[in-house]
Amino acid sequence: MTKNQTAQTRREFLKRCLQIVPAAALVPLSAQAFAAEGYDPTQHDYGMGIDVHKCIGCGLCVQACKIENQVPQQPFYFRTWIERYTIPVEGEILVDSPNGGSQGFPPNPLDPKEVMRTYFVPKLCNHCAKPPCVQVCPVGATFVSRDGVVLMDPDYCIGCRYCIQACPYGARFMNPVTRATDKCNFCYHRITKGLLPACVEVCPTQARIFGELTQRPNPLARFRRVNKIQVLKPALNTEPKVFYANLDGEVR
């Protein structure tokens, strides 16, 4: 099948889907369907901070996320994962993430004398203020809530995978159980009850910080004030709400 035939087939598929999907499905959804009773999203604006120097690559955050959010246990489904960056004295940078880092990392294959430095970088959905995944969804299954969290409704998802292709951070996957796109949602069912996301709660070194972007005082505000903050792929202008401290320029 040629590229033109493939593109035409996709367009025909979407046209058929849009004909059978109720008009209400094209209207942005409400986060209230996922929130705790009495929760007011207009009073919050959430974000996350990650201190790369504090991450030890233990993998507890990945395990907690899978358990809390019922993510399939296979080694290629993750809402959050950890990458190990090895900077050699000479040669190309090595990046690995065995099983998403959920079981920790094996010894570095390079001789210690050949390594300049090694560090771990947790990754997840960046909950962008200008999310490309929302722009390409043809049925409004993915949307930005009033409190700044990018949410995904599996009941509305038609499985077109456009959002997976559009995400520049590789943070989405097709869930084989729900047969819908899946990703991090900051443990929305927890934070709307005043709890921390599971990955933040279990981190033994407090490498992850969760809090409000517009309210002070709170842990995230202090984190952003006392550290030199960077985001992933800033040139894309997606305005991520996951902020990194001590991030090496080699990380993409």
How would you describe this protein?
- The structure is a single chain.
- The longest helix has 18 residues, at 3-20.
- Strand 7 (173-175) and strand 8 (180-182) form a beta hairpin.
- The chain is built from seven helices and eleven strands.
- The strands form four sheets. A four-stranded mixed beta sheet has the order 9-1-11-10, covered by helices on one side. Strands 3-2-4 form a three-stranded antiparallel beta sheet, covered by helices on one side.
- The chain has a single domain (25-247), classed as Alpha-Beta Plaits, CATH 3.30.70.20.
- It is globular, with a radius of gyration of 19 Å.
- The two termini are 33 Å apart.
- The protein has 252 residues and is an alpha+beta fold.
Question: Can you tag this structure with a few keywords?
Answer:
single chain, 252 residues, alpha+beta, Alpha-Beta Plaits, 3-stranded antiparallel β-sheet, 7 helices, 11 strands, 20% strand
- What is the CATH architecture assignment? 2-Layer Sandwich
Distance between the termini: 33 Å
Number of strands: 11
| Mean pLDDT level | 89
Fraction in helix: 10-25%
Number of separate domains: 1
Strand order of the largest sheet: 9-1-11-10
- The CATH topology label is Alpha-Beta Plaits
CATH domain class name: Alpha Beta
Overall geometry comes to globular
Characterize the largest beta sheet: strand count, sense, and whether it forms a barrel. 4 strands, mixed
Q: Report the β-strand fraction as a percent range.
A: 15-25%
Structural class: alpha+beta
* Tally of contiguous helical segments: 7
Low-confidence runs: 20-28
Secondary-structure element series:
HEHEEEHEEHEEHHEHEE
- What value does the Rg take, in angstroms? 19 Å
